[in-house]
Design a protein that fits this description.
The chain is mainly alpha-helical. The protein has 6 helices and 4 strands. Helix 1 crosses helix 2 and helix 1 packs across helix 3. The radius of gyration is 14 Å and the shape is globular.
């Protein structure tokens, strides 16, 4: 189940995290709420980009089903975040953040970076995202009480 993970070195001190891998193959869990959270965060990230790049592919629907659009935007996000960090994988996967500082041996967990990108775009919205966003499905609203 998607969750809130406490992290250091990043305000507000937590991220919206997946509980299992989200990605393009049948070996990934792609749990409904993990995929929904990924789609929500990607949509907010892409929405920020669309003000600079109006020809972007459509936003992923918050359906909880891993589809080609969700996969494309994970790859696109990873490609954009790889700049300056060649060892960071562009593999189409978002894995749970398993360290308190969001880092692993080759860089930062992509779910951590996605949270940072959404936060940096609008810190006030990030802190109350699950409480106030009309895009948040009911299955994710249960996370709001944990922030």
């Amino acid at each position: 189940m998607a969750r809130i993970t406490k992290v250091s070195g990043f305000q507000p001190g937590f991220i919206y995290d997946v509980s299992q891998k989200v990605g393009p193959t049948k070996t990934s869990a792609n749990a409904l709420d993990d995929v929904m959270l990924t789609q929500l965060l990607l949509g907010l990230f892409i929405g920020h980009l669309s003000t600079r790049n109006p020809k972007s592919l459509a936003l992923p629907a918050i359906s909880g089903t891993f589809d080609a659009t969700t996969g494309y935007w994970i790859f696109e996000f990873q490609s954009r975040m790889q700049v300056g960090n060649i060892s960071q994988a562009v593999d189409g996967w978002l894995s749970p953040c398993s360290t308190p500082n969001g880092r692993h041996s080759k860089g930062e967990f992509m779910i951590y970076r996605l949270n940072r990108a959404v936060y940096e775009d609008n810190p006030a919205r990030f802190a109350t995202l699950l409480l106030t966003s009309p895009m948040v499905p009911a299955v994710l609203k249960t996370l709001a009480s944990k922030t």
